[in-house]
Write a structure and sequence with these properties.
The structure is a single chain. The protein has 540 residues and is an alpha+beta fold. It has two domains: 3-18 and 39-69 and 77-292, 3-Layer(aba) Sandwich (NADH Oxidase), CATH 3.40.109.10; 321-520, NADH Oxidase (3-Layer(aba) Sandwich). 29% of the residues lie in helices and 19% in strands. The chain is built from 15 helices and 20 strands. The chain has helices spanning 3-15, 53-56, 60-66, 84-92, 171-178, 182-203, 216-222, 256-264, 284-292, 321-327, 342-351, 392-402, 429-439, 464-484, 497-504, and strands at residues 42-43, 47-49, 97-103, 106-111, 122-129, 137-142, 147-153, 162-169, 209-210, 243-249, 267-268, 271-272, 369-375, 384-388, 410-411, 422-426, 451-458, 488-492, 511-520, 529-531. The radius of gyration is 22 Å and the shape is globular.
Length: 540
């Protein structure tokens, strides 16, 4: 990354911090009747319907996969051969619609992958070769109809089956509501989507690995996102543009040479539907940071080393992963009286450690994020602020920067030693409630939960997208493990950046807050009706 690009990223990150005296620049008003279209399709592109989940579950091999518990997904199993049914299962359990909600005349979809404000900027494309009953080509996934659209056809070529997923962001969907901070949320959503895809792929016995040799510009070309004539402009081109994000392989031996050849000779089909014909605002800094933070193609290298960690803590409830994926929701309110059992809390923290297994093997960068925890109501634990470094490197970095503010910090005596969990400072429940609520944009979800946390990243402008994607991946782990323990999580994108840093006494910008999260017992809003259609309901 050039010095100029680094300066652009640093300026963006600083400018888009929320502060007690002012929030990051965003729209002053929203027209909810004219929000961006949540589903994109390509007109005149051939549709390939995917089998519904309930139909897939009738096949014994798939039924067995759908019954696999979350805690067993790291164990290798025989890979399911690529097929339309397998693709239908993969996409339904990662990026598909899992329910519909309604409140009065309003109706909206809930998806397997969470999204900031439920705005869903992420679009998914599949590069396919040698999959039965579908021609080699590039396909766009339509969650609203659970179908693939043929975006491009490739000349058939010999060789084993190949499956790649390319993710992009329709950044305007987030920018419409959140203004300049939206680029952060698009990257978080990409991380959540990677996590959702990794868990779904594991059910099928498939790997999922980031392909860093394909840079942002090359990925945009392969996805056809640089074909401006294929994207309607409306009033402005930036509202319709998709930003290339990440390429992931679902094959044990990815053939990137085939992908390059196929993409350069592709025959393109379809025109993109309009996202927003009448945008009210413009936020050019989002386009600027997107251009500055693009990845360059990198030479192939071994996956980043992760320090060996003892096997995961046992005791996670024996619930099918597919069930947890389909029932995952973001909590809106928490029961402020509920106390979380300590073993469950330790098991959740343990699940966030970056082991040499899923979902951490999906990303090709080492861990950069530690967790600062606000422990409100955990059985037999002193309320206070705790630290989970997540790696020896981060522990060393944090130790050097937290000594002055927290000289009396201590290891949690009865926590599993490999967690490295530390108590930074004890606090009264009232004091902790006030601080957690204030730092998270005065939101009760941060103070009424069992615990809340801030994700503190080793900040490097050259890895800006990677930091948020790792944070989104951690969030996806917390979402599913909260569900496994009978609780619910909520990602928090609105928090006061520098006041959080000041609380910790951080002397410079070497460590920056990237994402916040909270977990507790949800209180359901009975006014909102939830509908789960038969095609996405698993058989009893």
């Amino acid at each position: 990354m050039s010095v100029e690009a680094q300066q652009t990223v640093r300026a963006y990150h600083q400018r888009t911090k929320h502060r007690f005296e002012a929030y990051a620049p965003g729209p002053e008003t929203l027209d909810w009747d004219a929000q961006p279209i949540p589903f994109r399709h390509f007109e005149a592109a051939e549709n390939v319907p995917l089998p519904a989940l309930q139909a897939i579950a009738q096949q014994p091999a798939f039924a067995a996969m759908l019954r696999r518990p979350l805690h067993e997904l790291a164990q290798p199993v025989a890979a399911q051969p690529p097929s339309l049914a397998a693709l239908g299962m993969l996409l339904q359990l990662s990026l598909g619609i899992t329910a519909w909600k309604s409140y009065g005349p309003d109706r909206w979809a809930v998806r397997a992958n969470p999204s900031s404000g439920n705005l869903h900027p992420v679009e998914a494309y599949l590069f396919l070769r040698g999959v039965p009953d579908i021609a080699d080509g590039l396909y766009h996934y339509r969650p609203d109809s659970h179908a693939l659209e043929c975006r491009a056809t490739f000349t058939p070529s010999p060789g084993p089956a190949q499956l790649f997923v390319g993710l992009s962001s329709v950044m305007w969907r987030e920018t419409w509501k959140y203004g300049e901070r939206a680029f952060r949320y698009c990257q978080l959503d990409t991380g959540h989507a990677v996590g959702a895809l990794r868990y779904a792929a594991a059910l099928l016995g498939w790997p999922l690995t980031e392909q860093r040799t394909v840079g942002t510009a090359m990925l945009a070309q392969s996805l056809g996102l640089d074909r401006s004539a294929d994207f309607a402009s409306g009033r402005r081109a930036d509202t319709e543009r998709e930003e290339a994000e990440i390429l992931l392989s679902l094959s044990s031996e990815p053939d990137l040479e085939w992908l390059h050849r196929a993409s350069t000779t592709a025959r393109w089909h379809g025109k993109a539907s309009l996202i927003d014909g009448h945008p009210m605002y413009r936020w050019p800094i989002v386009e600027e940071v997107a251009a500055a933070s693009q990845h360059l193609s990198e030479a192939a290298k071994p996956v980043a080393q992760i320090t060996d960690i003892p096997p995961a803590i046992t005791g996670v409830p024996d619930i099918a992963a597919a069930t947890l994926i389909l029932q995952r929701r973001s909590a809106q309110r928490f029961d402020a009286r509920h106390v979380m059992p300590k073993p469950d809390f330790f098991a959740m923290l343990d699940a966030t450690l970056p082991r040499r297994q899923l979902p951490w093997d999906a990303l090709a960068v080492p861990p950069h994020i530690a967790l600062v925890l606000f422990v409100h109501r955990i059985q037999d634990m002193q309320p206070g602020i705790y630290l989970l470094p997540r790696s020896p490197h981060l522990a060393e970095l944090l130790n050097a920067r937290l000594d002055a503010r927290f000289p009396q910090r201590q290891a949690v005596a009865d926590a599993p030693p490999h967690l490295g969990l530390q108590l930074l400072t004890a606090a009264t429940p009232a004091e902790l409630h006030r601080v957690a609520r204030s730092l998270n944009c005065h939101q009760d979800i941060a103070s009424n939960s069992c615990f809340a946390l801030g994700m503190l990243a080793e900040y490097d402008p050259a890895s800006y997208r990677d930091l948020f994607r790792e944070a989104g991946l951690i969030g996806q782990v917390l979402y599913l493990h909260a569900e496994a323990h009978g609780l619910r999580g909520t990602g928090i994108g609105c928090y006061f950046d520098d006041p959080f840093h000041h609380l910790l006494g951080l002397p410079d910008d070497r460590l920056q807050s990237i994402y916040h999260f909270t977990v507790g017992l949800p209180l359901e809003d009975t006014r909102i009706e939830t509908t789960i259609t038969d095609d996405i309901r698993l058989p009893a």
